[in-house]
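Thread title: Can someone regenerate the structure for this chain?

I was given the following input by a collaborator and told the matching structure tokens would be attached. They weren't. Posting the sequence so someone can regenerate them.
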Amino acid sequence: MLTMRLRSPPPTCAPVPVAIASLLLALSPARAAGPIVDDLEGATLLRTEVPAPPPAPGATDPHARPEAGAPDGVAPVSAGVDARASDGDRSRQALVASGRWIGLPDALLGAFFAAHPSYAQGSAALAFETGATHAKVWSFEAAWMPLVPAGGNWQTRLSTPESALHVVSGLHMLTLDATYRSQYEAGPVRAFLGGGLGVAMLVGDVTTDEVLPDCAAPAANCAHWPTASRQTLDLPTRVLPILHLTGGLEVDLGDVLSLRVSGGFKNVLYLGLGLAARL
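Best answer:
Regenerated them for you:
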């Protein structure tokens, strides 16, 4: 009787590379939290990692990727946000009431008239403004500007003294204009400079009387006919364009009010004080 003896298969060497692979996985820094299943040469390894605790309040995540342009350890600041205040906090709408001196210097009038009275008046304006206090501002202004110099004799440079007229003006100019200003801020003080266009309506009349022709004095001192030659001037138009150039300084008096000193040209020269109230 033949007896067959079966030999056991030689032991496999797989446990050695599996153990090495397991050791390398345990030492690898790029490990994902949670269960990981690896299949190496038919052997299944189950490894569970405990997730790291959350960072303490105020601490930065060492694995977080900083945004481009942000220095290490410094949280980036959102674009468009000012370090002192946002543009929304520094924008405003305001009402501005102004009282002004308006007029034309005698030297300027003298360039066109050989005889003339002085022209200096008081004026008032009310404006609505909107924009950023540190950048650009739109101003929409309505103003009352009287054109009523004292009654007197007017003679142009190219005319004779006999042609002088005694003029009494009752004209008033009502204006509406829009100006665009640049503002330059230094603490509570702002400087501004700008310009704009508008339209004016003339209301009232101008009456004239002829100067007595036998007057030997300068035309400015000549008497005139009281009523015999009086007439009302026929104005060529009662609608005028407005050119408004302005500049000045503004000082904050608190969170709501500010005081303004301004000057410029608005068909005549002006200099005034204003009080602005933030809405």
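The first strand starts at residue 36 and ends at 40.
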